[in-house]
Description:
The chain is α/β, with parallel strands linked by helices. The protein has a domain at 11-192 and 226-232: TIM Barrel. The protein is built from ten helices and ten strands. Strands 3-4-5-6-7-8-9-10 form an eight-stranded parallel beta sheet, with helices on one face. The protein has a two-stranded antiparallel sheet with strand order 1-2. The protein is globular, with a radius of gyration of 18 Å. It starts with 7 loop residues before the first strand and ends in an 18-residue tail after the last helix.
Amino acid sequence: MDFIYQEKLTLANGVKMPQLGLGVYKMTDSEETIAAISYALEIGYRAIDTAAIYENEEETGEAIMYSGIPREQLFITSKVWNTDQGYDETLRAFEKSLKKLKLEYLDLYLTHWPVAGKYRDTYKAIERLYEEKLIRATGVSNHHVHHLEEILSEASIPPMVNQVELHPLLSQVPLRAFCKQHGIEVTSWSPLARGRILADETLVEIGKAHGKTPAQVIIRWHLQNGLIAIPKSVTKERIKENASVADFALSLEEMQRIDRLNKDQRTGTNPEKYDQL
């Protein structure tokens, strides 16, 4: 427990967001989901990332309630799904999510994907939620540079977070540079590339040098790059392993070796798909 990573990043508005959280994508079994989130909170996780489409906001809310942890110590993120996008639709979707989570506010609310013709109005609704103090920070997910440029051209409150697929096979360097230039923090979803690189020789070798697993090496790479990571797991061992990364650091040479693994290779959908709907 001493090694649970607890560092935070300061968002553009001064809100502090945990740099490591638990992703709950594909957690569909109710009891298993509650147990996984409860265990994560018990050992020191303070950020949970859910979404309407995951259909586990109610379980997330129950685990939060059962934890007994003061609300202000937690950082809860959810997202509006594609079929609920648009200005009024997003406001209604947010109300549903908040009710399912049994919370009075969210720390971060995101557009899930940039649906063509809708994502700008969706973000305007997120701005309104921020102005009404129903969320503590604004953000988007799966937005390329051109999506962000469109939003920034008319936003009164720039997005504070962009959550994208990011891992050593898809390091997203140009997008990260753009976000940094505009004060947008980047969250990595699928930070372990869905497990596809855990047998990579470079990661195995670096892990052995530190007495760590390849997964811990990858998560440490995210953190040292100033990224927010939200690895998902329902097993106690993996949940603990993923957060036990505070007791070692990668050298510059090791970071560069991992950087060279990039192939611009996705394990999920390219956001451009949603520009073509």
